[in-house]
Structure prediction request, 852 residues.
Amino acid sequence: MTVHHHIENSKMETIEKQLKNAAKATTAIQSLSDQQKQALLLALALRLRQEKSAIITNNRQDLDKMDDADPKKDRLLLTEERIEALAESLEDIAKLPNPAGVVLLERTLDNGLSVTKKTVPLGVVGVIYESRPNVTIDVAALCIRSGNVCLLRGGTDAFHTNTILTKLIHETLAQFELDENIVQLLPTDRKHVDELLSATQYVDIIIPRGSQQLIDFVRNHAKVPVIETGAGVCHTYVETTAKLQQSAEIVANAKISRPSVCNALDTVLVDRTIATSFLNILAPLLAAHEVEVFADDSSFDVLSTAGYPHLNVATEEDFGREFLALKCSVKVVADINEALKHIHRFSSKHSEAILTEEPALQERFLNEVDAAAVFVNASTRFTDGGVFGLGAEIGISTQKLHARGPFALEKLVTEKWLIKGTGQIR
Amino acid sequence: MTVHHHIENSKMETIEKQLKNAAKATTAIQSLSDQQKQALLLALALRLRQEKSAIITNNRQDLDKMDDADPKKDRLLLTEERIEALAESLEDIAKLPNPAGVVLLERTLDNGLSVTKKTVPLGVVGVIYESRPNVTIDVAALCIRSGNVCLLRGGTDAFHTNTILTKLIHETLAQFELDENIVQLLPTDRKHVDELLSATQYVDIIIPRGSQQLIDFVRNHAKVPVIETGAGVCHTYVETTAKLQQSAEIVANAKISRPSVCNALDTVLVDRTIATSFLNILAPLLAAHEVEVFADDSSFDVLSTAGYPHLNVATEEDFGREFLALKCSVKVVADINEALKHIHRFSSKHSEAILTEEPALQERFLNEVDAAAVFVNASTRFTDGGVFGLGAEIGISTQKLHARGPFALEKLVTEKWLIKGTGQIR
Prediction:
């Protein structure tokens, strides 16, 4: 091995240069006016539309390496329609209000000091994600819009797709005479993840987006602050005064409308008094979509009497389980106390619902359940940045610091205190 | 060893029971009205005043074990006056606005869903700190006021003092028929710190308060989210248009008024054009307090010509160093670009200042410096929750998530989305 080779190899074995360049690029992105950032996103939308066939060609290279039965294949697939949706998402993000530069507090102290607290970009945002290529565009756009540099560490499966998407982003940045390091794709080797997670000197925040396994790994290894966008183990409790037909429709919707997402229902808790009548209304709605049910003893009796075709006896593991599929668990509870206790024990603090017509119980549930989103008489499927009016989201945060619930553009900022004086001393 | 002994030992070897009890106690503290929380703090203030001599007796037990030369001895000392100040601090915290229950957003969606985002207590707050006993009272009071349970892990040095303070808190909680686990003192063994840092199931946030070593340890080992209240490496840049006499007074104040705190000045950057005249005004102000100066070559020449009595040649380590003493470093810079570059390299992102009469340079400095607090023509010593009107603070956060700058009562909350419907499905 020559010395030259040796140097080249050691260069490839670290991403420090990329991390340093990211920290430097914060100056470039923050020098843009809000109008320029909007123009940049619109220019990128145009590039995506112009390069649809090139994107599809690259995407096919990734797809060809995958097994047809792999469920990730559909998530990775880009079609003309999906690329159009990406371009439209860029236009939507361009229309959102600028989250940076918002004055949060302004006061003049008795000594004459003028104190202002305002929002400013975070700096360098690292995102670690799996196969969805729309994350590449959404995260880059949200970071540009909020004045942040972003480091994208996508999955190996999406390598060619992410490479062309990043190339188009770089071409657009170049069009605006901007530092390409504002958006960088990191190599997919596992060892570089560790380097990213430890880079407190260069990276301000890391967001893991994907499986619980990925999130756990990041939380347990990161020295850089992390925002978790976690799993949703979501319960819906049907109380005695609930409107039964309406409640069955809410429960069915929460399970069936999109079972693979984090705000989908996992467990139905039903009050003993109404268990038989409610489950008899619910059963045909779930059966129509072949939902596999894991039932506790009481609900098993009711559902087997009703002839429910996809019935199992629930084991302890079926409670507190995120199914991400057309499956759910059912449990009969004595009252709201037992329901709250069950939720407290098994909830992942994402989205929880009570269905009841009793105002005092609605308030009690809203107050006592510790979760990002708590619902009364509605489907947990509504937990979503777009639905709540925040625009595209990076994920649903299930932790309590900084952002809770939909983590969208408005939270890609930090605060800065600005103090102007005329010679004040303390 | 008997079986009985063995059981006792294994009980002592884990704090899981305490952590579980903390999580359970959140219900009790959150069931209080705001008025009850205020009353509780006032009752505690009364207890402190009544038990002054008992507190002082316990405090003496801790002090007697310390070397007289130990600088921690003064920090640990409680006198009648200091206990009175603790009681007054409780009264101040009782007067602050309730940070929980604040409506941050309220909207009705097109489908009729009513969406509200409001602030709610975090849950269980863990604080790891060193010898100051006022932290015990301040943290307990801020947590009670905001509806949080707190776990206090104080230093071994303050064991007897913290024990009696916690006992008085428990007696006051009992007076209100409240769960004593709302405020708990954790054992001081090092191994329990690891257990606390990993307790994601029971603890919502950990705040380390103390030395950089402690903070680094917590950041590197915690799985529970952490708010760092970090070291301050604070610069003041004196630009050519600065009013020289005023600037010298600001610099001297920033160094001398309380050198042991994080917002004290560490490095003076002075523009080449005015270096000689400025340093000649500054020198006697620093000399009057025997400030030891570590000067770069240019400023060394000026200060040694001026006969400055406590002068050293600065080494590379004297920049980016938090002195926490009557010491500072001085560097002559060519212009604002060099000053910004130096600050970017060495700042701990706490408090930074520019002294200049040029509005464009003021704006540039305010925009480009990445720090929690950025000052124009004032002393960095003003970075403080009390000064900024936020009340008592847990520390100054130098990180970017959740809280930046003074971390006070207002930030001891998270958010919760509450959604009320009438049967909406997605």
About this structure: Chain B touches chain A through 66 residues (CB under 8 Å). Residues 39 and 316 of chain B are 54 Å apart (CA to CA).
